[in-house]
Amino acid sequence: MLQFTIRRTILAVPTLLFISLVIFLLLELAPGDPMAQVPLTVPPDVKEKMRLALGLGEPVHVRFWKWIVQFFWVEPQVLVDHIFGTTFSEGKLRVISWQTRSPVMEIVIQRIPQTLWVVGVAYIVGILIAIPIGIYSAYRQYSVFDQAGTFISMVGYSVPPFFSGVLVIVIFSVNLGWFPSIYDTTHVVNDWASFKVQLNQMIMPVMVLALQITAQISRFMRASMLDNLNQDYVRTARAKGLGERVVVMVHVLRNSMIPVVTVIALGIPSIFGGAIITEQVFKVNGIGQLLIGAIQANDLPMVQTLTFIFAFLIVFFNLIADILYGILDPRIRYD
Amino acid sequence: MTDLSDAELIKPPRSQWRDVWDQFKSHKGAMAGAFVFVTIVAVVFLGPFFWTIEATHIDIRARNQGPSWAHPFGTDQLGRDTFARMMAGGQTSISVGLAAMGLSLILGTFVGVLAGFFRFLDGPLMRLTDLFLALPILPLLLVMMLLFREPLNGAFGPETGIFILIVTAIGITSWMPTARIVRGDVLALKEREFVLSARSIGTKNSRIITRHILPNVLSPIMVSATLGIANAIITESALSFLGLGFPPDFPTWGRLLFDATDYLQQYPERVFWPGMAISLSVLSVNYLGDGLRDALDPRVRGR
What we know:
heterodimer; A: mainly alpha; B: mainly alpha; MetI-like fold; 14 helices; 0% strand; globular
């Protein structure tokens, strides 16, 4: 198992490097000019110098190498400096955003908590709702509850977040006026009243994201429970006189959770991607919105870094899922 | 034995597709899904012959109207008929869905068959598939929309250019699941006796693939086709919703929804029609896919 983990981790490195190269080359084709907003009165030679200052004058491979060094070598040093108060990164060039002329990672660090709050809470809420639904509808297969649950999860699976989001805004914000339609990220929670405001503004985005997550995971949970309920070991457990509760909730559930846990791990990065749309609907100031803004403003270092972070999340959670599968299921042998 | 009449003995064997259809018919959700999807497609493509108001016709005096007999879905802020715009938008959305699904199926089947049939291609092609699966799809789609919009607009005009761009972008980022499924099936199929006998009478590889392998991997391809349509419709709408899809004067369902969100406070009903159309088509296609999967799976069909 350890050997497998190490081998997969080592294999992930070239994958990530290749992905970063693909993203870089794709962005290299960008027709937009970062100097477009500079006034026309600025003389061409000054413009050329500004271009060089942005690091645009050099050939492609040099710039790619520079980005690699900045992202994988300088940025971790900044992190270490920040934690331990050392000065490894002093005077070294970081990945700089063209929009704000400040380090990309600092903006990302500012934005991540907003995304994590909304997406993280939605994911947990979604899982907590999905698992009981999946268990019960598998246990009572073809009952009214199962039929309704299957239908609702199909609907949740099919309705895109940009419609369900707008729909809940119309219902709960425009017509009923219960919740604010815009997520206020500057809101500080310091007492009970402000916590309630925070809760109020989180309900709608969380609801929309959780609906999708619940739909996917409850389908998986149901299928996995159904697979296990017909197994011989369940009959054995019943035959030796175990209570129905113990049979389902201990024996079957534990075995059914194995694929579901890996699906949960695999879904985390795609939720970050899906949150791009939800953030746009509710005007949450997270990394999804940051990416859209950067794409529209032609801020290539920002787009490159953010896209790479998404790719990193996918590769990382794939690895986690594979390892979890091996740990949870003793029948899986990777070597 | 004597009970068997001659008529029963000479009855031709039931074809496989007959069995599939019988099983499909018994899946109520799939039948409803097929009915709804066919209705949507029919209304969207045949409707403009009966509903003669142009989607781009501006009648500024009749702007922001509610539903009436003249305008069943109301009009928008420029007085354009929402029903006509919904049909025009549906044509684009469904065409994008079908074309992107077709492209991703062709790519996925091609990669899958090659990887499954030729051992030396298996490793590289599957690594390529893994790499594509690790790409962050939505951010990359957004980046691609931004980058290639101008050159393609220049080459094919704004509408055709964006159409080609969206279809290609969705197609080349969604073929991976099909490729994996097809590869798995081809790996199993090529060890079967009928492939061996075809080879023993000297059939060429290309012939074996087209005559013997492809017809047998048709069922997983059909199932992923339905899922592909749903996925492509949602992706196109998402791109249009983020303002990076079709141009504003060229309606698609996603674009109509995006435009309607500006008037969310005054005319909340306006988001309902395009959103409903997207959700209904996707839901019906998903049910269709579920039914097809059951109908094409011989293990389920017997029951």
